[in-house]
Structure formats: C-alpha cells, structure tokens
Amino acid sequence: MHRSHNVSDTNPRNHDIPGPSLDGLTGGSWSEAEKLALSCRILAREGHSETLAGQVTVRQADGSFLTTPLAHAFGEIRAQSVIRIDDSLRVLEGRGVPNPAVRFHLWVYRRRPDVNCVIHTHPPYVSALSMTGEPLQIAHMDATPFFDDCAFLPEWPGLPIADVEGEIISAALGQKRCVLLANHGFLAATPTIEESLYLSVLIERAARNQLVAQSAYGRLKLVDPALAKESHDFLLQRSIVNASFAMFARQLPQEGA
Known about the structure:
10 strands; Aldolase_II/adducin_N
C-alpha cells in the first residue's frame, strides 16, 4: 500500500518539541555530576544495578572523566558521590576509587572523539539476550532507535579490565551508538549523558520484548528498513531525548540530584 503524506509530516525538524522542565527546573540547569547521579538512580530503578557490574563515565573538556566510586550501587549515587579521574584511573577529586572496568571506556573515548558519555551495565533482559548468541532485532517501533545503530560482539573477550578487552569492545562498537556484548551486557556511547541514558533504558525494554516474542512465537516480524530509519532519526532528536531524560528523572523520589 502506498504511504502518502506531506513532507512536513516526515521531517524530524518539523516535529521538534520544547525543552523539558522538572518542577520548574530545566534540564540544562543540572550540572554534569547531577545528571550522572540522576542517570545512575534511573538505571537502578530500571533494574540495571543488580551487582557491582556496570559503570557510567562522562568525558570533561580538560580530558578528565566523571564516574562513580567502586562498591557503590547505582541507587546510592548522588552528585556528591561522583569522583573525577584521569586517563590512568587516578582520582583527581572525590572519595573512593573507580571501577577498574572503566579502563575499557577509555578505549572508546580514544577512538570516538564524538563520544562524551559511556554507560555499560548488565540488565536482566539484555543479559539474557546476550546468552542466546543473537543480535538485537528491530521488530518493534520502540526498538527503532537501534536500527543500524547497535553493533554486536559475538564472542566474550573476558573480564573487561585490561587493554585487550577495551581494544576489542571499542573496535566492535565502531561508529555506532550501542553494542550488544555476547555473554555479557551492552554499551551505550553517545555525545551526551541524556542520550546514553535514554538508549540504556530503551535497549533493556527492546531486549525484553524480543525475548518474550521469540519465546511465544519462535520468530519475529522485522520492521521495514526504510520506516525503521525514519523512526530512528525521529526518536533520536535531542528534544525527544532530553524530554525523555526529564520524564525518567521525575519518576525518582524528589530528593535532589
């Protein structure tokens, strides 16, 4: 069937929406440490913090990185918990030590000057999908932000605390925003905290839907590639990403960042 519509209906720039607010506080007024802390608590609420596995890092203009201290659950993180480290994992500000797995994030930052925030976790459904040996499939509208934008590393290279794992994972990511890591978890690497968090929430839900559908029917009906590309570009507009981040943040207990 022919799909007819005006150009204005399909141009994402014509669908831009106003920036979000949170009790009168615009998203832009959060510091990066506050956004990192909010992201951690959102991830905890979404089930991404079952163990000590998982890290969030944010690149700073001076070449340092914000992250969280080892042995702190995502749900515990507040802005004052955040530490700043250099590219040798030495602590420059804050208390505690970084997770040694942050080392593989540094490989991503070296290869990708466009990336300013990396999130890596092992949420339940992504972890289950990673055990099947299959990549993420684009079979639902809500998965389209990953269309041609989620790489797949089919073999687990081992615990990612050495340079070799960082080299393998960053190479598998390539120029995409995400990578599904077999027998492991996933990585989101984007220019902003908001976008990395947005994709981290969406990929767990996409993995859940894929596993449920496959368990029920054994096969998937994939989305048409042209429509998936259109949806990908629309749903990754900055205004939609930022509005989604603020929506997720509003669902947290209102106790500050």
